Each structure stands twice: as C-alpha cells, then as structure tokens.
Amino acid sequence: MKDPLVRFGVAIEGSLLGQLDGLAGERGCTRSELLRDLARAAVGRAKVPKGVEAVGALTLVYDHHVRNLSRKLTDLQHELGDGVRSALHVHLSHDLCLEVIVMRGLSDRLQSIADRILAMRGVKQGGIEIIAGLTSSRATDHHEHADEHEHGHRHERAHAVPASRRPPKRTRRA
Questions:
Q1: Please, what sign has the CA dihedral across residues 142, 148, 150, 152?
Q2: Of 87, 89, 15, 13, which is closest to residue 57 (Cα–Cα)?
Q3: Which of 62, 33, 49 is nearest to 132 (CA)?
Q4: What does each C-alpha distance from 93 to 30, 70, 100 come to in angstroms?
C-alpha cells in the first residue's frame, strides 16, 4: 500500500522560497518533490546509529591563510592514524582549498571529529556523509578488486593498506 501524501503549511522567508523554487526548476521537479528529497536526506543522516562501525566522507573548503589551520587539520588526521583511509587536497584559488577526508571508525566518533573540524576558524563550508553497516570486522584486511571492466583496460587501485599487511605481489598469467 502506498503511503498517502499529507498536505501541511510551512512558514519560510520569501527569498529562501525563491531560491528553493529556483533549485526545483534546475532539477526539473516540483517544490514538493524537492522538499521530500531534502527531508529524506535529513532523516537518513539523523538515523545513523551511534557507536557502530561506519565510513565517512568529510568535505570542507577552507582558507589556508588562516593561521595554523593547515597544521591543525594535518595534526588531527595524524591523530586519527589508520582511521583516515584517504585524503584529497585541491587548491581552488589563491586563498581557498578543498579537502575530502575519507575516514573509518565508530559513527559517533566520526561525527564528533567532523564537528571539530567544521567549527575551526577558517573553515568556510563543509559537511560529512556517514554510512553505517557497510563494514565488517574484516574490513581492514586486504581484498582483491576485479580490475577488468567491459571497456577492456586494467585499472590500478591505490589502497591505504599498511605495507606490513600487504600480500606479496603476484604475477599475472597470460
């Protein structure tokens, strides 16, 4: 049985409503469809269970000229050790950098770390997406990928696996 739609009133600033309608137009959907999508996303983020194994992708834009900010971000990533699986750093302009940090750990700890980083002076914008339930106790073990794709060429994958846990290299048979 389909969940019935419920009509309700919402009070919102006129300028924000105009921006919302503009976004709905860009996406080719109605205001109601856009609000449902936004509500589902917010509810989904709020439903991430606490204290469970999870992965998180933290995205932030920051002003690298702000005193000690780059050092603080680096120090925090080093403090997390193997919890940081990968990081991408991109220079956007003379002042701004984009950083994407992929982390693994307990969901509430990932959220706490993200909150600390996003609150730092000089961080202009950012957010974290936390996904729980995709990892197992063996998730840190090395695993093989199928590197052959239908478009016929091989992809090398870079994994953040400590050298001590990497299996010996195998030669590929023709």
A1: positive
A2: 87
A3: 49
A4: 35, 15, 16
Q: What share of the chain is helix, strand, coil (3-state, %, to 5)?
A: 35, 25, 40
DSSP, res 85 = E
Residue, of 40 and 162, whose pLDDT is higher: 40
Q: Tokens 């956007």 sit at which residue?
A: 92
What's the chain's average pLDDT?
A: 81
Single-letter amino acid code for the residue at 9: G
Q: Is the pLDDT of residue 161 over 80?
A: no
Cα separation, 104 vs 142, in Å, equals 15
Task: Give the C-alpha separation, 137 to 54, whole Å.
Answer: 11
DSSP E strand stretches across the chain:
53-63, 84-91, 96-106, 123-132
CA–CA dist 130, 15 (Å, integer) = 31
